[in-house]
Amino acid sequence: MNGTTKSNNAILMIHGLCCGAEVWDRMAGAFRQLGWRVEAPTLSPHLRVKDAPSDELAKMSLKDYVDEMEGAARRLEADTGHRPIVVGHSLGGLIAQKLAERGAARAAVFMTPLAPAGVPPKLSLAPFVTLGNILFSRNLEKRPVKIWETGFKWGMLNGVPASRHKEIYATMRYCSGMVFRDLIMPDKNPERVAYVDETRINVPTLTIGAVKDRTVPVATHRLVAEKYKRVGGDYLEYSDRAHWVLDDLGTDRTVADITNWLESKQLGLA
């Protein structure tokens, strides 16, 4: 893990599909400057590499991803005496939902998140372009996968200046195809880990949606927010933003909005 501040006020940042810790550099730096301790681990970096992944990666399930991040949250709790604020983006947003359900967070922020199983899907062609090379793969659950460059730039970075696209894509890593299978066919996973029981969540939650998202449609963001509104969750939507809200032209605004939200819940820095 990477953190520079010894503080009881800790944030755990969880990255999304095919990403690593580098995607959080800007937001993590901003929160550290405000005085927060921030941990932003890369999921299984020994297996989730940028090139030539081992076949062992294909054996990882969504449960493995969630368990690994819960372990990171529990270590922060043991070190600081407090459960961390958990902030997740995309797939990391779904993992953050699971950590909130498991009682491993004292508040959770879901940024342009994947929806848990059971949330009615909103049909859109855009995600099939963004993730097409993965979604249409044969034997998906038996091999490592990595989002194709064209889809990534078109569907994830459409809110980011084109001059930065190549630099960001160069940080992408392989993921386990089994994880995608667990997301697409959640009932095939014996632990049904893609489901989230919102009635077990008793901490503040904030869902962040983006109207121009081509990876997870904004209609899905709204449904995720509606799920957690039943247990007191809040929703924030950006009309001018896309999927990559963690490092686009409006990220400073997002840092300020999350900070204000935490303060409204009396979870800001003392």
List keywords for this structure.
single chain; about 270 residues; alpha/beta; Rossmann fold; six-stranded parallel beta sheet; two-stranded antiparallel ribbon; 8 strands; about 10% strand; disordered N terminus
Question: What is the structure about, briefly put?
Answer:
Pfam families: Abhydrolase_6. With 270 residues, the chain is of the alpha/beta class.
What does the secondary structure layout of this molecule look like, with pairings?
Layout lengths: L9 E5 L10 H10 L2 E3 L22 H19 L4 E5 L1 H11 L5 E5 L14 H5 L1 H4 L8 E2 L3 H7 L9 H5 L5 E2 H8 L20 E6 L7 H12 L4 E5 L12 H14 L6
Parallel strand pairs: 1-2, 1-3, 3-4, 4-7, 7-8
Antiparallel strand pairs: 5-6
Helix pairs in contact: 2-3
Pfam families: Abhydrolase_6
GO molecular function: hydrolase activity
Keywords: Hydrolase
What does this structure look like?
The chain is an alpha/beta fold and 270 residues long. The protein has one domain (10-264): Alpha/Beta hydrolase fold, catalytic domain (Rossmann fold, 3-Layer(aba) Sandwich). Helices cover 35% and strands 12% of the residues. Residues 1-6 have low confidence and may be disordered. This is Alpha/beta fold hydrolase.
Number of helices: 10
Number of strands: 8
Number of domains: 1
How much β-strand is present in the residues? 5-15%
What general outline do the C-alpha atoms trace? Answer: globular
The arrangement of helices and strands along the chain is: EHEHEHEHHEHHEHEHEH
Share in helix: 25-40%
In CATH, the homologous superfamily goes by the name Alpha/Beta hydrolase fold, catalytic domain
The strand line-up of the biggest sheet is 2-1-3-4-7-8
Name the structural class: alpha/beta
Protein name: Alpha/beta fold hydrolase
GO molecular function: hydrolase activity
InterPro entries: AB_hydrolase_1, AB_hydrolase_fold, AB_hydrolase_sf
Keywords: Hydrolase
